[in-house]
Automatic annotation (TrEMBL):
It is found in: Cell envelope. SUPFAM superfamilies: Multiheme cytochromes. One of its GO terms (cellular component) is cell envelope. Its main location: other. Gene3D superfamilies: Di-heme elbow motif domain. Coiled coil: none annotated. The lineage of its organism: Bacteria, Pseudomonadati, Nitrospirota, Nitrospiria, Nitrospirales. Residues 8-163 form the NapC/NirT cytochrome c N-terminal domain. This is Putative Cytochrome c-type protein. GO terms for molecular function: metal ion binding; oxidoreductase activity. InterPro entries: Multihaem_cyt_sf, Multiheme_Cytochr_ET, NapC/NirT_cyt_c_N, NapC/NirT_cytc_sf. The keyword Ribosomal protein does not apply.
Amino acid sequence: MNWNRKATLILALIAGAFAFGGIAIPLTNHPKFCASCHTITPSYDSWVTSSHKDVTCVACHVRPGLEGWLHDKAWNGTKDSMIHLFGTPTDSHNLQAKVGSEVCLGCHRNILRISEIATRDLPAPVKDVGLVMSHRAHMEAFGVRGQDEGCTTCHSGVVHEQPIKGYPIVIPRGHVAADSQPWYPDHPEGSYLRTRALSDCFRCHDGKQEYKGKPISRKCETCHLPEKIGAALLFN
């Protein structure tokens, strides 16, 4: 084969790869493609009814930039596909997909400037007690702890879980074990998602762990507006 034919073949292969990628990549970016794997189907079903139903899977699960695309999309996507086709996929109740805080803050960065959330913006029954929540302080504390924590430490179920105890939307699991309304998730005993769903604010607000040299209080007034707590009948 002479040089001209080799060059033509190489160029044809490169052009074909670009053409294939131009078709395949948009297809694999669609949530329905993700849902074609039966392990992901429960996550897809919860996503379509969530507050993030207009945000695609890759928007949250693939970090921005070339490195994020190569690792999160190309590498992890290929690996997961091979496991799905030829191996033993992880049970859907034990999925541990990570969403980096930098991805969340790409849309929600303004929350770092807010410390008190107006009651009109809160879902019931949290509206009855108000909320004082410094997201910046929490992000700083997570950084100091150095345990790879971030937005999903509190908001991990916002897309792929169901509301509990009368909440109209999925919010951080507060008071799961503290109030008078027992609740247990649908996930099997011992599964990762069950453990995550039962974790609430008191895993850090236990009166023992410290922030800036002071124990993190378990008192209601730490997070809720004092003038509203007395009138609320949420807890016994």
